User: Fold this.
Amino acid sequence: GIENSNNLCALDFGGCQIGAEAAKCVATLIQGKALREFYIESNQLGAAGSKIIGRGLKGNCSLEIIQFAMNSTKDEGLLAFAEGLQNCSKLQILDFWENQITDEGVRGFCE
Assistant:
């Protein structure tokens, strides 16, 4: 299946109504991939799904674009997601538009 593709450089799950359960499959799919673009906006990930996706992103150093808008995630989900981005030195675009993130979450994200 697609999980064996080593040449995958972009993945778009935007608007697919993915929740925390399906996020486990997505996280497994993106682990170890050299993705440059990852679109997962307009889903229903919430904090639980955001954490799962964040764990799947760990070690991906090639990401340049992540669209994560409108996923009903809050501060806790943002911070967990951010842990997966620690090695993303090529990241140019990171979109968290229309989530439920407060000043506290942004401060934690920036630290």
